[in-house]
Structure formats: C-alpha cells, structure tokens
Design a protein that fits this description.
single chain; 335 residues; alpha/beta; 13 strands; 16% strand
Length: 335
C-alpha cells in the first residue's frame, strides 16, 4: 500500500514507519520538524528512515491547508496514519492556541484530504487524556468522555467527533486509537521516562507529582505500533449492533471505530521510578509535588474491544521496556 504517515519524525511515527517499510509498504512521511523539543532528535530519527527506497519525506505542517490539498491531490494515498499533533498535557496550559492549530485545523485538513482523494481508511491518534475527570476504572471506550481537564484532551475528543462526522456524511472509514502513556527508545524529551533518566544520571532531583500517588498504564512503543498497523489493515465498518436510542461512543452506524490501546496493567509512578533506578544502578532524589492542573491521578485501559477487533493486546512488561529505553539512551547520548 501507499501510506501517508504524519508525524513521521516523531517518537511513535518514526517507529511506525520502520514497521510499515519492513512489510513492504510505500511510506510518505510528513512532519513540520517544529522546535517543541530538540529538532536534532527528530532529524536523527529521520536519518534512520531515509536510506529506505520506499520512504520519502515531506516537510509540511498539517495546518497548511493549501499544502495539504496539493499533497493529497498529487500522491493518491491508499491509507493514512495520522500521528502528527501538538503533544503534551502541561504545555497546553501555556500555549493552547498551538493545540487548536495543529490538532483541530490540522486534523480538518487530513479529513478533507482523505475525503476528496477517496482514502480507504484513516487511522488517527487519540489519547487516554480524553477520559479526563472519569474515575471509573478501567477506562472503557463505551463510557462517556465529555469532561476533559486539559486543552490537549479537548482537541483529541474533538478529533473523534470530527472523524465521526466524516464517516457519517461521506462514508470515510475512520478509526481512532486512544494511546495510553507510550514509552520506549527514541522517546520524547518532555516525557517522564526521558526526564527522569536524564536527571538521575546528572545527579539532579526529579519532580514527582501528586506526591508519587500516580498510576499510569505505561505502553511500550512497539506494542502501540503493532496495534496501529493491525488496525490499519482492518477497515472500520458500521456496527450492526449499534442502536441510536442508546448510542455507543465507540461505534456507529457509520464506518467509525474508537479503541483503547494500552497495557491493561497500571503501574505506580514510584514503582516506575524504581525500575529506572534499577536499570541505571543509581537512586533518584525525589522532589514531591502536588498534582498539576490538567493532570489525572490514574489511567487504566480496558482493551477487550481492541483484542476482539484485531486479536492483539499490548503485553510488554515495564522492566523490559524501561531496560530497552535505558540502553538506547546510554548509547544515543554516550553516557
């Protein structure tokens, strides 16, 4: 297939590109290489992809309407994986406009491109953040997600609503994947695992929010990518069991689906830090702080629907995943 992969220089996107190329797909990787974090890391991820003869890179902002229209018209993609987004819950408190530009305007351009070029299937990244103030655990796609607690979460919920509209009006098959705390090699510098590892190695204290009373459903990046590719291969279809009088947020009478993709095994933040300490052979100095605005104390994915749909459940244990990250970090930064 010819696949448009947005966010190709990103953490998950670059990993997904390798997976698609390994199975023989042609990949057009799009990224704007913005400076939200060190561009050199993005460039190094891309450098590992450019030798592949079936990979082409396009530097373009998804919010560039004219540029996106031209790209879709020229390339005629079979399928689209949309991972480009302004990421980060905490940054959305400082610069909410960036989230509207990238996550809402950009997603609109993706939908329009898919519609007009008759793309077979759009798979896009949503987020566990959409569960917001929900306290019922584990989080289920069949529960309401109408109470976001950050602008980032609100834009991801908006993406799901926009996708459903296009599935309903134009028959565009769309599948949203709610990612749960993705981690692993080549990860983002603003994520906890990267921040903690760097600080511990440098002998600096780490900020531990909610006084360490946090739980996250940490999901290894290779598991996320496996789920993305399997979902790409199973086109969204209308749910014959859908009932309009009792609507299910995860399905529809249109070709629309939403799935959680997480490890289905929440880990306490202090245990997570303990695994990093064990891998580094060093103890962390902890700066215990209250819960931050926009954050939630726990995430936990119910992934039964995903398993029923594609026969796959993420299962990489936290020690294995952290070990892989630490080995990559030491090799990449020569520490």
């Amino acid at each position: 297939m010819k696949v448009l992969l947005t966010g190709a220089a990103g953490f998950i996107g670059s990993t997904a590109a390798h997976r698609l190329l390994a199975r023989g797909d042609e990949v057009v990787g799009l990224d704007d290489l913005n400076d939200y974090y060190d561009v050199r890391l993005k460039q190094d991820r891309l450098a590992r992809l450019t030798p592949h003869r079936r990979f082409r890179f396009v530097k373009l902002d998804v919010a560039d309407r004219a540029g996106m229209e031209q790209l879709f018209a020229a390339e005629r993609f079979d399928r689209v994986i949309h991972l480009a987004a302004q990421a980060g819950v905490r940054y959305s408190l400082q610069n909410p406009q960036a989230y509207v530009d990238s996550n809402v305007v950009g997603f609109m351009n993706i939908l329009e491109g898919c519609r007009h070029s008759k793309v077979q299937h759009l798979v896009y990244a949503s987020s566990s953040s959409v569960y917001g103030g929900n306290t019922k655990m584990p989080f289920s796609e069949h529960d309401s997600v109408d109470h976001p607690v950050s602008m980032y979460a609100a834009t991801k919920k908006a993406n799901e609503l926009m996708a459903h509209t296009y599935s309903h009006l134009f028959g565009l098959p769309t599948t949203g994947l709610r990612f749960f705390t993705v981690y692993g090699p080549w990860g983002r510098p603003d994520m906890a695992l990267f921040l903690f590892t760097k600080a511990i190695l440098e002998g600096r204290a780490i900020d531990v929010f909610n006084h360490g009373q946090m739980q996250r459903d940490f999901t290894y990046v290779d598991d996320i990518v496996e789920g993305v590719v399997r979902v790409l291969d199973r086109t969204a279809t209308p749910d014959p069991a859908y009932r309009a009088e009792a609507p299910d947020p995860a399905t529809s009478n249109a070709p629309f689906r939403v799935f959680n993709i997480g490890n289905n095994n929440p880990v306490s933040l202090l245990d997570f830090i303990g695994c990093i300490e064990d891998e580094l052979g060093m103890k962390a100095q902890k700066n215990l702080l209250p819960l931050q605005d926009g954050d939630v104390p726990a995430t936990y994915a119910n992934v039964d629907a995903l398993h029923d749909w594609i026969g796959f459940t993420p299962a990489t244990d936290i020690r294995t995943g952290i070990g892989q990250f630490v080995r990559w970090y030491r090799d990449y930064f020569k520490v």
